[in-house]
Amino acid sequence: MGQTKLWFLAVLLGLCTWLEPGKGSLPFHMNSVIQVVEVLESHHLDGHLNLTVTELARGLGCCDSEFYQLLLGEAPAVPPDLPFLSQEQRSFLMRLLKHKVQASSTEQGVVLLPDGTTVAVSPLVAGIEAGLKGRREMPLPPEALEPLLVTTEPLNQTHPGLPLTIDALYAVTIAKALGVAFLLAQANESQVPLGPNGCWDSVSEPQNFTLLGRPSNLTDAFVNGALDGVILGAHLAEQGMPVAPLSTLLREYYAGDGLAGDGQARSNFRRQNFVQLTEAGQLEEQVVRSLQLLRALPRMAPLLSGVGDEDLLAAASRAVQEFTEAYLECPAIIPRCMWGARPYKGTPTQLKLPLSFVYIHHTSSPSQPCRTFPECAADMRAMQRFHQDDRGWDDIGYSFVVGSDGYMYQGRGWHWVGAHTRGYNSKGYGVSFIGDYMDTLPEAFALMLVRDNFLPCAVKGAKIQANYTVHGHRQMVHTACPGNILYREIQTWQGFKMEEMTPPRAPEAPSPLKSYKWRMGPQGGERELEPERRSMPPASSRWAKLQNWKRAHSQPETDAPEVRMARSSPGTEPPEPVGSKAAARRSVFQRAFSAPGKVPKEPKGQEGIKLNLRKYLRSKSHRRSQESGPKAEQAPQEAAKGSAEKPETEEANPAGLCGGASSVQAGPRLQGWAMPANVSM
Known about the structure:
Distance between the termini: 114 Å
Radius of gyration: 37 Å
Strand order of the largest sheet: 9-12-11-13-10-14
Number of domains: 2
Oligomer: single chain
């Protein structure tokens, strides 16, 4: 009896020592997990530790409830001290094996992966242990089923053939947790059943993982760990004995070339691989069986008291449907905080959902696809720097960006207006593939991620309309984006429409008489033609006078007494006939750029005095009309300003510029009229 007490006190002392985090604690990264597993495996081979790593984890408190003991067996006893582990390794191990969400929305028991996602360790360990035990199918105890359903023949007319066995692999990873999460959410309406994702305080030295929304019992990290547990457990069950060391398995799956060298058997593709492993309806059956087993356990009686099989079936159906839509049909999107996004400049503009369009781009620069999380995160930061610093935009222009690592990356996201397609930013999402796809296609899984996951997910989430339209960037503006080969590919997608929007008319070739239309670019002194100015209303007196002046003084010089009537705008006075006197009033531009012509001499004497007086009175009248004109028009112009929409300055993505970090940006327009420098008055 005395020895038992001493052993118990030693265990408590060891646990208290392990729970002290210490300043030099290991970073919560999968590399640290592999490092600790290698130490445990080396002592297991030396005979100092008679337990496998997963058995040790269960003995330390991971997956030790009655439910897990029924399916995985009794948790083994653990020695009171593990001298071959350092204090920081003990602290790391103890904090890792207990999954918990604290009141401060900090999630414990999770680690950062090399692919940029986060997993909970407890469902991962449970799945590996189930796989090592051969993925047992266990019969449900009779008390797990309602007596009525056990004695009735047939079992149930509505749901014939209720299951009587349970798959331990699904039950200990995802099925039980999924069913309980939705039962709790059903009992408490303020409880969310799924999510959310979160952010680490540091990607290089992660210590604290904070959730981005209201926590649930089934966070994104727990789901990732459960999916990985099913995949690795199924792999171990098929492989049989002997198996490779656990450290080797984790390294291949999370940081290597994939299980057995299969590049698709990696954590980057967990959602696709889980779908291939799980048959239709199998997950729902396992959720029902897990809940039935829980109902037979005394500790779960308060939660499931009075809940019949019909209620369990309804809860399981809803749980699997929402889980499938959120995690299996939708792509995994790396949030902004994980790739190191800068803050948004100013206040973002909200999109009016659902949208009608999706515009496909390629970045062109970076021209090479990114295949790892560090590469893709670096490309995202480079593009955001270019868009904010060089172009002066509020943020990275794209809504979402597709990497060649199996993930999409959040740009402006679902709710903010982007700066990706000039004139159409508020009408659709801009989705860009990292790389230059003029001559090659993106990876097949990257195309599937957008075509088969992103677009259907956006429809079900009411982000885009069911009859959405897919366009290539080149259909909207003059550009080669999204590349010839990628553009040919998206023409086969559902929702693609071939009709092209009418792009802005190309400007006329520059001429001395129209040199005021030039504007300067901000880089390298380059100049490009300004698009045609918005015409003023026909009833504007200034507009009419300007047009009449241009028509009168742009006529070819001639000495013939021909009289020409210029067309008048509606609501304006017709202009005076333009005869030989027009040659005497030639414009400054004609005198500067045309050969001198014969100008009739003005009459002298009394007739000349009258003519000069008329000219003087006419000039005074013209000057008064110019001074009073702007004042008269000031009020309607201010009223028009109030009713006009806010200009989308940063959204004016110049034609031909498709993302990237090296494209040249056009500068702001010059306001007003500009006189050519080589003209003298």
